[in-house]
Amino acid sequence: MQSGFRSIGLTGNWRDPRAVEAAETMARHLADRGCSVLTEDDFPGTALPDGARRLPAGEIPSAAQLLIAVGGDGTMLRAARRAALADVPLLGINRGRLGFLADIGAADMLAALDHVLAGDCATDQRLLLDAELLPAAGKPVTGLALNDVVVKRLDSGRMFEFETFVDGRYVNTHGGDGFIVATPTGSTAYALSCGGPIVTPDLDAIVLAPICPHTLSDRPIVIPGHSRTEIRLVQQDGDAAAVCCDGEVIGELGAEDRLVVAASQQRLTLLHPPGHDFFEVLRGKLHWGRGRRSRHDSG
User: Fold this and answer.
1) pLDDT digit string (tens) for 269-290?
2) In a shared domain, residues 281 and 238
3) Is residue 292 one of the residues assigned to a domain?
4) Which of 22, 54, 155, 158 is most deeply buried (CB count within 10 A of its CB)?
């Protein structure tokens, strides 16, 4: 069964020569299979096939039927927001370090492309978060996140306090370094380092995790995916916090401001090679079971 992907966009971390080389190899491979190739206008490679087009990065998702991101998870996060807004599926080629999202290695990328073009791949719908920063004075600021929305103190020398509400119900007043609202995808990112649970990507849920809480009883919780979370800074002179979507600052939360985070109507479609297994990814990336007897051992 053919996939119908004939126009393929390439995006990536072009500061990394390995990503550039991988993109050039894939571009020639795709052209040989009759696909038209789109890449960003700042792509530094020179070995693209005839007919490949260069476009501004923001225009590629809407012009492509499939977007391929080449790099690490940071590259995937940037590409994910563009792909979700354009309703285009995303495939990740790992040329970074960890590779939770970009799960195809360079050695397997051409075989993976052939599977995708043949329609032989797994699809995975991922929840995203809408963040709306509502200042006491001024216009609202919005952001979109695949991993998480993070509120983090600007003054590194002191703890600050903030209140959280879920669907209008008061949850807690937290003291610490900040707060994370994470998707299931983001549950293996910053939230995991704060003691949050690992949530399988198909679960419709959101993780709330305090960062370095002042009290040990302030623990991460999991709420339904349809819930709305509101965060307010408890007023103290000079206090302010940065609001980040997938690591990119969208604004500051100050006294009398509000931050509202909820599941987005946008969804991201990730493509994976046949046989993709989330638990296998966890075992590999988190080094589970190393030095222990495997399940295949007997006796």
Assistant:
1) 999 988 889 999 899 888 888 6
2) no
3) no
4) 22
